[in-house]
Amino acid sequence: MIQHSMINAYRGHLRKFLAAALEEDLAQGDITTELTIPEGHVSEAEIIAKEDFIVAGLPFAGEVFALLDGGIGFDEAVPDGSRVGEGDVLAVVRGHTRGLLAGERLALNILQRLSGIATLTARFVELTDGTGARIVDTRKTTPNMRYLEKYAVRTGGGCNHRFGLYDGILIKDNHIKAAGGIGKAVEMARCKAHHLMKIEVEVGSIAELTEALKAGADIVMLDNMPVELMRDAVRIARGYSPAPLLEASGGVNTDNVREIAMTGVDFISVGALTHSAPSVDISMKIAGPGHAEKSVN
To answer: Three-class SS of residue 245?
Structure first.
């Protein structure tokens, strides 16, 4: 299954996040459901796509119901990464009706958000097919949802940039200004980082690119460069030995991403994947009237 190793690695964080999200919605309980649905009532519900998209987040939706009621069954009808259409069943949920209704909104919110990200990511990947450039995400994510949103990017065929400030060196304009220049910042990072850590430097001009190349940057981010200037930057960097990896960033959209990819950069980081992806439309419907749970003597 797609990304199950990622899910297992972050399961502790996931459960804390889901527990907090459930507390936000339920607080002291689901008043409407508790007043209208008997305690032993059981039902089966279908989670249904209402438009075309790439599905992402089904394992997380299943975790929502498992946290509410360990007896609820959650059967995925399709795997994450599948392209689905209007009317397709994504999953079937069975168990106590109170638990199904209490978890419905959170499960759908997660599915709608992550599927939207996966679908937009797949569009960017499709537009750059054959260029050799890889689409990557950024840290412009929803607070406390970064892991889930980066999972959705990978489900849509994209790649992950650093997860946080702790797992990658990216020297940006404010670091450069505070440190006293690109060369000084790279030198300090190189002296203090371990030998396996790569150093990326953000540049916005050919002069800054030249400084980053001389400083020995492993990766250079070409930030908000016009395409013509980016082509010149790629040509200059490729002629340098050893040549760094190149990342294009800033102002990337579906209209210009292929042109950017054709400049020869290795990566294109797209903040829109996570900060501007529209949520898709998904619903959960109980399949007919439920029934009281049978007691066992």
So the answer is: strand
User: Is residue 233 very low, low, confident or very high in pLDDT (cuts 50, 70, 90)?
Assistant: very high
Half-sphere exposure of 192 (CA within 13 A, CB side): 7
Q: Could you tell me if 45 and 287 are in contact, meaning their C-beta atoms sit under 8 angstroms apart?
A: yes
Q: What is the pLDDT of residue 2?
A: 47
User: CA-CA distance, 39 to 273, in Å (whole number)?
Assistant: 42
Helix or strand (DSSP H, E) at 14: helix 11-26
Q: Are strands 291-292 and 282-286 parallel, antiparallel or unpaired?
A: unpaired
Please give the helix or strand (H or E) that residue 126 lies within, else none.
Answer: helix 97-127
Domains of the chain: residue spans and CATH: 4-117+279-292 (3.90.1170.20), 125-275 (3.20.20.70)
CA distances from 175 to 84, 169, 180, 189, 209 (A): 44, 11, 8, 11, 16
Tell me the whole-structure pTM to 2 decimals: 0.94
Reduced to 3 states, what is the DSSP secondary structure of residue 46? strand
| 220: phi then psi, degrees, rounded to nearest 5 | -120, 125
What 3-state DSSP class applies to 37?
coil
SS (H, E, C) 202-240: EECCHHHHHHHHHHCCCEEEEECCCHHHHHHHHHHHHCC
Looking at residue 66, its amino acid is A
Region 232-257 average pLDDT: 97
The tens digit of pLDDT for each residue in 38-49 reads: 999 999 999 999
Rounded Cα distance between 226 and 256, Å, is: 11
Distance, C-alpha 286 to centroid of its chain: 29
Which residues does the annotation mark as catalytic?
105, 140, 172, 202, 223
Alpha-carbon span 151 to 170, nearest angstrom:
21
